[in-house]
Structures are given as C-alpha cells and as structure tokens.
Amino acid sequence: MIVQFVCEQGIARSQIAGALFNDPIHETRSTGIVPGWYEGKTLSKIGATSLLESMSLFGYDISNKVVRRLTNDAIKRAGLLVVMGQKSTWPYYLIKAAANGKVIHWEIQDPVGYTREEYIWLINGMREELQRLKGMLEERLKLVYS
C-alpha cells in the first residue's frame, strides 16, 4: 500500500514524515498541495538548510528529495493519505478522498522559517505520530490477514 504524506508546499512536513516513516511494508511518497516554484526542485536547491541540518542530526539525508505536487492520480493510487496542515487549503479531490475514508488529518503547523532547534522539536513530535500510524497500519493488516 502507498502511504502518501501531504503538506501545503511539499517541502518540510511531508518530506520529514516520508523519511521517518521508513516502513518496509508500505511505499511512501511526499507531496505538496501547492508547491509553487519549488515543484521539481530538490530540497538542497531550494535552500532548506535548517531542515536538512536537523534531519541529518537524526541520520537522514533528504537533500536530494524532489518537491512534487499532489495530483488526483496520486490520490487514487494511495491507500492512505496523511495530510498535515489546514483543511482550508485542500483541493476538491482531496476532500472527496477524505469522505471516502482514505485521509488522516494531522494538525501540524507549517514550519516556514523554523530554526534548527524548532525543526528538532517538530521531528521528535512527528516521530511519535508516525509510531502510532505504524501501529494502526499493523492492526489493519492483522484484520485483513486473520
């Protein structure tokens, strides 16, 4: 199953979640609802220095991750979408997916302008959320295969 992590621009929250989730059973993807001029660029090219330094402290190199736009096609392929941010920015096709039970919403503030220390705090909080998500997905698999 594809687990699609989504945030507003596809630069920080979705990239952090995708790297930290690192689950051998589920494929992960990271996208943004409105990536703007960042789309198609790597995190190192857009100057996400505080984010990259913070992730490297946890042993993750996400500098070559590319910012991608969430599409209707990506939503169709995903088994689960974890959307971080305000619901007011959601396109219609994401709202429709939520109505079909494919979406989990995490209210995580946009980290634009965060310092390295603030990113470390965010990463630690997301690690806890991702552990809960892994537990939930393991339970789903047990139900399917029992």
What does this molecule look like?
- This protein is an alpha/beta fold.
- It has helices spanning 13-21, 49-57, 72-77, 92-99, 116-145; strands at 2-7, 27-32, 80-84, 103-106.
- It contains five helices and four strands.
- The model has no long low-confidence stretch (mean pLDDT 92).
- The two termini are 18 Å apart.
- β3 (80-84), α4 and β4 (103-106) form a beta-alpha-beta unit.
- It has one domain: Rossmann fold, CATH 3.40.50.
- Strands 2-1-3-4 form a four-stranded parallel β-sheet.
Briefly, what is this?
The protein is of the alpha/beta class. It has helices at residues 13-21, 49-57, 72-77, 92-99, 116-145; strands spanning 2-7, 27-32, 80-84, 103-106.
Within CATH, the superfamily carries the name: Response regulator
* Overall mean confidence score, pLDDT: 92
The CATH class designation is Alpha Beta
Which structural category do the helix and sheet elements fall into? alpha/beta
Number of helices: 5
Index terms:
146 residues; alpha/beta; Rossmann fold; four-stranded parallel beta sheet
Topology:
Elements: E1 2-7, H1 13-21, E2 27-32, H2 49-57, H3 72-77, E3 80-84, H4 92-99, E4 103-106, H5 116-145
Parallel strand pairs: 1-2, 1-3, 3-4
